[in-house]
Amino acid sequence: MVAINIQPEYGYVVLTAVGTCFLGTWHGMRCGAFRKAAGLGYPTPYADSAMMTSASAEQKQKLYLFNCAQRAHGNFLENHYVALTSLLIGGLRYPLLSSAFGLVWSLGRIVYAVGYTSPNKENGKGRLAGAFFWLAQLGLLVNAGLTGYNL
C-alpha cells in the first residue's frame, strides 16, 4: 500500500484547478455575448452556411465570430479534463511545477480564445498565438505520468 503525503504547496494546485473552472465559465459567458451580438437564439449551436449566405456583410462577421467563440469554447472543453486531471495528479508530487504549468495552460487558453475571436485575423488564425497551451498541457501530462511511475 502506498501512502500519499499531500504537501502544503498542494493548495496552489487546488487554486489553479479552481481557476480553470472559472476560465470555463468565462468561455461560456463570451459565447453568450457573441451569440447575442449575432442575434442567434439558443440552442442554435453554430451559424450554418445557409445563415451565412443570406446575411449581410456585417451580420456575416458577427455570425463568424460567434462560430469562432463556440469553437474556442469547445476546444477548451475537449482539453480541460486532460489538463485538470493531470494537474491534480501531477500536483501530488510536483505541486509548484504542476501549478505553474496549469497557470501557463490557463493563460494560453485565454490568448487562444481572444485570438480566435479577433476580427482582424482571417480563418481564426489569431488562435495560434495561444497554441503554447499545448506545451503546458504536455508538461502536466509528463508530471502526472512521473507521479504515477514514482508511486
From TrEMBL:
It comes from Aureobasidium melanogenum (Aureobasidium pullulans var. melanogenum). InterPro entries: MAPEG (IPR050997), MAPEG-like_dom_sf (IPR023352), Membr-assoc_MAPEG (IPR001129). The chain crosses the membrane at residues 96-116, 128-149. The keyword Transmembrane helix applies. This is Membrane-associated proteins in eicosanoid and glutathione metabolism. The keyword Lipoprotein does not apply. Keywords: Membrane, Transmembrane, Transmembrane helix. Gene3D superfamilies: Membrane associated eicosanoid/glutathione metabolism-like domain. Pfam families: MAPEG. It is found in: Membrane. GO terms for cellular component: endoplasmic reticulum; membrane; nuclear envelope. It is a multi-pass membrane protein. One of its GO terms (molecular function) is glutathione transferase activity.
